[in-house]
Amino acid sequence: MAIRQVREYLSRWNREGDILEMDVSTATVELAAAALGVEPARIAKTISLQRDEGIMLLVAAGDVRIDNRKFKDRFGNKPRMLSGEETLQHTGHAVGGVCPFALPAGVPVYLDASLRRFETVYPACGAANSAIRLTLPELEEYAAALEWVDVCKGWEP
What domains appear along the chain, each with residue ranges and CATH number? Predict the structure, then answer.
């Protein structure tokens, strides 16, 4: 089960005990926000994408969508979301619990600027009923993020 791998992974920072496991689903932004009692934008959704060079993960605020033009300008191709089967195969996490932790080697993680509106956000932790509250510096460190990018729309003031 992926949540066990995430728990073990987060133990490097003594954060394994901070994973929240709910009795209800957190598989979508709306469900996660309701379960956690936070605004949907603070859910740090992890999107699995195919690029010409392989797959990548993009962690973005829950209220945004990828801007195809910005994405293509930054990465050189139009984004294509992975299927559920592809996501599980390449990340080890099933859709609904995909997170930027405990990933196979070589899976690049990018953080979208839409998250910078918040001091803390809630990414999933490998299961469709899990989350953890992290500061942005913690998210960046634990996800081993390559860099911050600005490839989403719908959040700008």
Answer: 2-147 (3.90.960.10)
